[in-house]
Amino acid sequence: MARSNPIALRSLISEIGPVDQVGIEERVAKYTTRSIKKASKVQALKLAVSMVDLTTLEGKDTPGKVASLCLKALHPHDDPSIPSTAAVCVYPRLVKHAKKLLRGSSVKIASVATAFPSGQAPLATRLAEVRAAVSDGADEIDMVISRGAFLAGELALVQDEIAAVRDACGKTTLKVILETSELETYDNIRAASFLAMRVLRPGDFIKTSTGKTSSNATLGNNQVMLEAIRDFYLETGTEIAMKPAGGIRTAKQAIQFLIAVKETLGDAWLNNARYRFGASALLNDLVRQLAKEKTGAYQAPYTLSEASGSY
User: Fold this and answer.
1) Which pLDDT tens digit goes with each residue over 45-100?
2) Buried b / exposed e across 70-96, counting CB within 10 Å, b at 16+?
3) Are 217 and 10 contacting, i.e. CB atoms less than 8 angstroms apart?
4) Residue 26's CB: how many other CB atoms inside 10 A?
């Protein structure tokens, strides 16, 4: 594996401060020991449901599958106390189909763009894809950065591309995917977070992963990014949101991520304007756990519809 860390990248890491890897690992290990019971657990589970970007990103996606996804996002369960999800996330050509079903609801339409997941298309092509998704009704755009350019130290290029996508979004919320597994080190993840945040607007997101690599969101890379958001907020007053994506499949994991948010950024980030989960399988487990808290028994898996298999 290449370990590129040229002068420009080293300079940025020195400016913002390196990551104490041992400290991060010790901190996140403690999150897994917290115990939340009864009413507090139910509250956490419902909060997690409201933060899900219910996602399908497969080559075989169809308007019919997106329609099913939208209905599940609007009504995750027949229990009316369980909230809708934050958003559905689909490929750009399917945005208009989601718009028909979600218009007027609280559920946002997110679309991956910029040649997701590789980001290897020419910039003009990537920007055209963003504009098309926005024109079709996307409320949020999830872009990928040029990881190769970042690791090669072409930081101005990466930042200029993020700024160009931001401008193409207009008023649409932008989520910048770092693809943390390809950035290789916590120092690089922190540096990429700052690089993005410096050209983002309040309410825009930084996001861990595409969900298409072997390693996605972890408590460790989530913590590095949360601390970057905290430090950037203390420095600038700009409130940047966060989205871990990929690999978060159980309610237990989701609650651990929420504990990390509360203990690092505080209650102001415990809402779906500031924190999201990029997930599909997670929603079913959250609903199962809520049913268990209410009835004392788990629902059989076949009683819950499948949302998607992409995350």
Assistant:
1) 999 999 999 999 999 999 999 999 999 999 999 999 999 999 999 999 999 999 99
2) bebbbebbeeeebbbbbbbbbbbebbb
3) no
4) 10
104 φ/ψ sector (left φ>0, alpha ψ -120 to 50, else beta): left
Quote the pLDDT of residue 298.
73
Structural tokens at position 92? 């750009």
Domain ranges (residues) in the chain: 7-109+147-155+183-303
Q: Quick one: how far is CA 63 from the chain centroid?
A: 23
Question: Which CATH code for domain 7-109+147-155+183-303?
Answer: 3.20.20.70
142 is catalytic: yes
Torsion of CA 282, 285, 291, 293, to 10 degrees: -100
Task: Establish how many alpha carbons lie within 13 A of residue 201's alpha carbon, considering only the half-sphere containing its beta carbon.
Answer: 11
Model confidence, pTM: 0.93
Which segments of the chain have a pLDDT < 50? Answer: 1-2, 307-311
Residue 100 annotated in active site: no
Spot the catalytic one: 72, 207, 212, 285. 207
Active site residue 30: no
The CA distance from 277 to 216, in Å, is 12
DSSP helix/strand/coil, 43: helix
Q: Which one is catalytic: 53, 61, 139, 142? A: 142
The dihedral region occupied by 248, where left means phi > 0, alpha psi between -120 and 50, and beta the remainder, is: beta
